[in-house]
Design a protein that fits this description.
The protein has 258 residues and is α+β, with helices and mostly antiparallel strands. The protein has ten helices and six strands; from the N terminus they run αααααββαααβββαβα. Strands 4-3-5-6 form a four-stranded mixed beta sheet.
Length: 258
């Protein structure tokens, strides 16, 4: 858990370094997520980091709040992010994420925590928060037109993307097909490939780890990546891949970032 939390903190700090120097007017700059400004991305992370603390400390209270959120029409994280000025929002995000990570460090990796979908182990929960942080940081970076260096922390994002393959079908009302998909990814720093699935599987996804992570978090259209997708199972999955909880995402249109 400590090693995982170290990576989570590093991902949070990388985003912090992008938004901390921004003048107030830049917090209202739009990002590629329709209707979401920079402040909405940070507000979303801050809101759900606080929800993670509640899930780990008061399961009953979390379930009550989760039911209100899931049956409501509005996104409470958006209201949260727009209720205060940029400096205060940055402070709330920093405070909440620090409390969350400190709490995660005390948990057994296998300890089950409730969430808005199925319950998760503490290790999977921390991985999901890292994935969310990285994905929303990508939106912020794209909106501001700044770089987001790829690191080997993407292995966490890729892992949850592979593990979420059945969820991608379920959330779209589809039956999960039988058969494996082999995933072989080139790490950002080079070296040995990251692999998942049966090495003999006919269906395969291969290419840069960054591109795979962008597709499974729906930050890039498959057509705008260097991924090679072989076989009907792999093709179908990459068309609906979703590593994050919630309803099917809108994704990004082909050519949006070319």
């Amino acid at each position: 858990m400590n090693a995982l939390c170290d990576d989570l903190e590093a991902e949070q700090q990388a985003l912090d370094e992008i938004v901390a120097p921004l003048p107030p007017d830049q917090w209202d700059r739009p990002t590629p997520a329709p209707g979401w400004a920079v402040r909405d991305q940070i507000g979303h992370l801050a809101f759900f980091d606080r929800a993670a603390v509640l899930a780990a400390t008061d399961e009953s209270a979390f379930r009550e709040e989760a039911e209100r959120i899931m049956t409501g029409a509005a996104d409470p994280s958006a209201e949260f992010g727009r209720s205060v000025g940029p400096a205060d929002l940055l402070g709330l995000w920093r405070t909440g994420r620090t409390e969350m990570v400190a709490l995660f460090r005390t948990l057994d990796p296998g300890h089950r925590l409730p969430w808005y979908g199925p319950a998760m182990s503490a290790a999977s929960f921390a991985t999901a928060r890292l994935m969310e942080t990285w994905a929303h940081a990508r939106d912020v970076a794209d909106g501001l037109g700044v770089g987001q260096p790829a690191t080997d922390r993407l292995r966490h994002v890729a892992h949850i993307g592979v593990r979420a393959r059945p969820f991608s079908y379920v959330i779209n009302g589809l039956e999960v097909p039988a058969g494996e998909v082999r995933v072989e990814l080139v790490p950002p720093a080079g070296g040995d490939q990251w692999t998942w699935g049966d090495a003999g599987a006919v269906d395969r996804v291969t290419g840069p780890a960054l591109d795979f992570c962008l597709v499974v978090t729906q930050r890039r259209h498959l057509a705008d990546t260097a991924l090679v997708v072989e076989g009907p199972l792999a093709t179908e999955w990459m068309g609906i891949a979703q590593a994050f909880a919630g309803p099917p995402g809108e994704g990004r249109r082909a050519g949006q970032f070319t």
